[in-house]
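Bench notes, afternoon.
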Amino acid sequence: MIKGQDSQRGYVCSTKVNCHLKVMDTNVLTVIPNVDSKLLEPVMYWDPEPGNVTLDSWVGKIEFTNEEITLYVGDGAECIVDDDEFSNNLYDFEDVKDERCKDSEFYAKDYYEGQELKGELGLLEDAKWIKSTAQFSKAQARKHPKKIVTVRVKKVEPKSIDVNWLCRGYATVEKSLSQMVTPPTTLKPDDIKRLRKVDCFWPSSVQIGDKVGNKVPYNIFKSSIKVLF
């Protein structure tokens, strides 16, 4: 209250955000309207934005995530993009289902299972080929670098995560001495298994253009889906 004025003040104690989702894996324009953002999750699980995480009693912020991406190529061939510098070559691939310009503020370079990418085979020459075929292999990528191929993302896993540790929270007396040492800045897979996200405000910060997945089975939304031609 403001003395002498007919006014009242308070603070926001809860928010609810509903989203219209455009389905990426269909050949026609399909929209799921009015989905509660609390039922959504980001495609990039270890996203640096906002990137707040905990490891045991330590609190930090993600600075960078290095992902290992497994790709299906052509007729059963598979390769892994696991080097950070080389993974940037995937930026030259086009997302088959994403019609937004790469220079758009709404464009997001995130990779997810089932995503289709289109680009030159030569960009995969230095990838780790775990399954090769007569048409698609390291040798074929070197021989036909300009050949256009469509690949599908099979799996995305974090190879390492760089974290800026901010402070240490409360810990029990039994563990306090053993946890005084700051965790490593670069976390490997064994440490990542113990890493936890602090993302209670994420549902309120969903933006237009974000790539998300939903936690509810598709058939629950089926009755509300709108197919637009």
